[in-house]
Design a protein that fits this description.
With about 675 residues, the protein is mainly beta. It has one domain: Beta Barrel (Maltoporin, Chain A). About 5% of the residues lie in helices and about 55% in strands. It contains six helices and 33 strands. Helix 2 (about 15-20) packs across helix 3 (about 20-25). The longest helix has 10 residues, at about 400-410. It binds copper (II) ion.
């Protein structure tokens, strides 16, 4: 009887994390682990209007990438103005796990034009959870750098009976337009929320009014989330996302995308407030399919026209049990998925027969893993967290032709490969008044990606090398050590965080002079190899000062370092940066002015094809106003990015394509 009573209060799943924090603790315990001081950070994307917290400036029209950039450990690789690649702790996709509500999903482009984060829209997102380093979320595998989980926005059973939102935004630079509508319906038995988003942009202009050709894009995203509670605490939920980007330009690459389409579906069952050892059980089955078509027909001076499609499909499931006993908060997760990756390329040489090549030879991957974690409270001041995951993986090259082509370079190679990988992590936290101190360590490894193991002459425009995979690669492993100290409360908030990763068998492409390139103009061929060792260090300082009740000053300093065993710098390691902003919050008005100062990238990696990136300094300003128009809640923002129209590019702008020049934007959100 008691448990029925409690549950009535709790089942506000979706928005509850923000709106009902007192009750959401148990229902979302996986996400609100207290002792995980060092490695967990989150950014709230959508919160109920009026809840007092939301993203400044771009508001509801911000892209997922813009939301991700608010996280301390995240930077972005940019190949154009669409679909940036998240980098966590200076590690790119290979070392980062990205999931959507715990679902595995793999991009379908051999050139990384479509990171998983590009298939979700802000309007369908509740928040982004980032677990930095090896202490990943339960569904994550191969997450040495960290794991990102995109939590979808679900109306839940305890929300308003109905709610409608409409959003529109405009940015002067590139004439970017964003339109979104969504609707949510909620009752104690059934909820549904659905929406559609449309984005459209032309070429943007870099500082000094220089137009960046092939930087346009168009994107449509629709979603539907459904929930049904046939009996108290027994919840069935379903999700469908359909996302399609067309006419996407990639100024940093030789090719554009004619269409990239993702279909993401899931069905889950949750049982809340179980009696006994476990208090919550959630199981999900899912399927997603991505098709990606590259296109160079819009480009001038194409010597050899190429068709390069790719596709990825993943079917999987997970089952998560959570419980609390005494001073333990534990969870146990089983997950399994099957993914297939296929990509090929046809080259049309004038006056000759077309040349055909399999770049991803239809590789099937079966992966199955078991994860556990336990958060142990040791009295009022001390806490301990341990987590571990082991995964078994089996791979097979399904395409005969692809297998034969690779066998020429690797005689006697096996068509299948089985592997075990895993991770363990432990952290300890100490609280004393306003202070918290944490230290943590971990060990883990990852299996090579399909590109690293079986990629076939994939041209990389960054260093102009053709890459071929190496089926004989060993798993890459790393030891992580991290520490943080933080001071919370008023008026000063401070946080220092340092982490370091010691790699063994670090996987990277090394030039192989015995091989000759396929791509015209390529500098040579690189073969993926294991380096004996490498090291990455990241340090962040946050210093926030609540100067007055309505005035806040936030500062962020980041420093990173990455070297391989020979002493050479690793590529794509962020230079020293400083961000500072002043925020004003006065009644229904908020405003922000800020700057970003980035040092010259002195430690660029000549060995791996990087060139010097000069330092830069840019400024932004924005203001927002929330007001009522009759019964309609309105949220209006205006802002200017890169106020002084500075011409610059960051270290992670592919081939130094310039960033946007001055950009004046405005957006409005209405809630009915
Ligand atoms: Cu592509």
């Amino acid at each position: 009887m008691i448990h029925i009573f409690v549950c009535k209060l709790v089942l506000g799943a979706g928005l509850s994390a923000m709106a009902v924090p007192a009750f959401s603790q148990t229902a979302q315990q996986a996400d609100s682990v207290d002792s995980k001081e060092v490695t967990l950070s989150e950014v709230t994307v959508t919160s109920a209007v009026g809840a007092g917290r939301k993203v400044a400036g771009k508001g509801h029209t911000a892209s997922i990438e813009e939301h991700l950039l608010q996280l301390n450990n995240v930077t972005m690789i940019r190949r154009g103005s669409y679909a940036w690649e998240p980098v966590v702790n200076n590690m790119t996709t290979e070392r980062v796990s990205t999931t959507i509500d715990g679902m595995k999903i793999f991009y379908a482009c051999t050139d990384k034009m479509d990171p998983v984060t590009s298939y979700v829209e802000s309007g369908n997102l509740q928040r982004i959870r980032l677990d930095a380093g090896l202490d990943g979320n339960p569904q994550a595998t191969g997450n040495i750098g960290g794991s990102i989980d995109l939590k979808l926005r679900k109306a839940g059973f305890a929300a308003k009976p109905q709610e409608y939102n409409a959003t529109a935004g405009y940015e002067s630079n590139g004439h970017l337009q964003v339109y979104g509508i969504d609707a949510a319906f909620s009752s104690s038995k059934i909820y549904a929320n659905m929406g559609a988003f449309y984005r459209h942009a032309g070429n943007y202009k870099a500082g000094g009014n220089e137009e960046v050709g092939f930087s346009q894009f168009r994107k449509v995203n629709t979603f539907l989330n459904l929930g049904w509670q046939p009996r108290q605490n027994h919840i069935i939920e379903g999700t469908v996302i359909f996302d399609r980007a067309t006419d996407v330009g990639y100024p940093a690459l030789n090719m554009d995308v004619s269409d990239a389409t993702g279909l993401i579906t899931s069905l889950s069952y949750r049982h809340e407030y179980l009696q006994g050892f476990f208090s919550r059980w959630e199981s999900k089955v899912y399927y997603n399919h991505i098709t990606h078509n590259m296109d160079d027909t819009g480009r001038p001076d194409v010597v050899i026209h190429m068709d390069m499609p790719g596709r990825s499909s993943t079917a999987g499931l997970y089952s998560l049990l959570q419980g609390t006993r005494g001073n333990h908060q534990f969870q146990l997760n089983y997950d399994a998925y099957h993914n297939t990756l296929f990509a090929d390329m046809t080259m049309y040489v004038k006056g000759a027969k077309p040349m055909y090549m399999l770049t991803w030879p239809d590789v099937g991957t079966i992966n199955s893993g078991l994860a556990l974690s336990d958060d142990i409270s040791l009295g009022a001041r001390h806490s301990l967290r341990i987590s571990a995951k082991g995964s078994w993986q089996h791979r097979r090259i399904n395409n005969d032709e692809g297998f034969r082509a690779l066998s020429i370079y690797f005689p006697g190679m096996s068509r299948t490969n089985s592997d075990f990988s895993g991770r363990v992590a432990a952290s300890y936290s100490y609280h004393q008044g306003r202070w918290k101190f944490s230290v943590g360590t971990g060990y883990g490894n990852r299996t090579p990606t399909v590109t690293e193991a079986y990629g076939y002459f994939l041209n990389n425009t960054f260093d102009r090398y053709d890459y071929i995979g190496n089926p004989a690669l060993k798993n890459e492993s790393a030891i992580e050590v991290n520490a943080s100290a933080s001071l919370t409360g008023n008026p000063i908030e401070a946080r220092l965080e340092v982490n370091t990763f010691f790699f063994q068998n670090y996987i990277i492409g090394i030039p192989d002079s015995r091989l000759s390139a396929m791509t015209i103009g390529a500098a040579g061929v690189k073969l993926y190899q294991n380096l004996p060792s490498a090291q990455i260090v990241n340090a962040t300082v946050n210093l926030n000062w609540q100067i007055l009740r309505w005035l806040r000053w936030e500062n962020n300093i980041r420093y990173s370092y990455g070297k391989e065993n020979t002493g050479a710098w690793l590529p794509l390691i962020a230079p020293f940066s400083y961000q500072s902003k002043c925020k004003v919050l006065w009644g229904n008005v908020e405003a922000e002015v800020g700057t970003e100062v980035v040092a010259r990238q002195n430690n660029f990696s000549q060995k791996y094809g990087e060139t010097l990136t000069p330092g830069y300094n840019i400024w932004h300003i924005n203001a927002g106003w929330r007001f009522n128009l009759g019964k309609v809640l309105c949220d209006l923002h205006v802002g200017i990015d890169n106020i002084f129209d500075h011409y610059y590019s960051t270290y992670s702008d592919w081939n130094h394509i310039p960033q946007k020049g001055r950009n004046i934007y405005t957006n409005i959100s209405l809630q009915f």
